[in-house]
Amino acid sequence: MFKTPEQFAAANKATVDSLLSLANTALASAERIAALNLNTARSLMEDSVSGAKALMGAKDVQEAISIQASLAQPNVEKAVAYSRSVYEISAQTQEELSKMVEAQFGDFQKTVAGLLDQAAKSAPAGSDVAVAAVKSAIAAANSAFDNMNKAAKQVAEIAEANVAAATNATVKAVGATAAASKKK
Asked: Which ranges carry the Phasin domain (predicted)?
């Protein structure tokens, strides 16, 4: 497979670089999630204190109910925004990892094609059929990978559209409920 130690060293370096790239992507994603969680926790605590102070300042039960109803909408919107942010971070990370896998698969395809061409040149006479069969199998595998990749991207797009629709419906429903509560 490798004719010289330099080729072997280059292949090892490429593998290490790929693994480091994957690790850095995963760590960056974890960092973003941790920062989001910390900011969300801080905001939740501040909102809770603010809401408690507002409720303690209520003059009667009706005012307390009104204050509580007015706090529901922003809390739901913040929960939806948090969920959307987590989804976006996850989707971006998945996209980056997918690109890395595609690049690695492309490099693998080139290497296999090169090795196959070398084998075909040094193969004994009459082995053309076997070489053609291997090339056909590789082409079929490449086609399957491309089709699977396209299908995965379509599923991701559909999921993203569904998440957006569900988010908007939830915010509207809570808004309508809060508006109805204020009218009472």
From this structure: 6-105
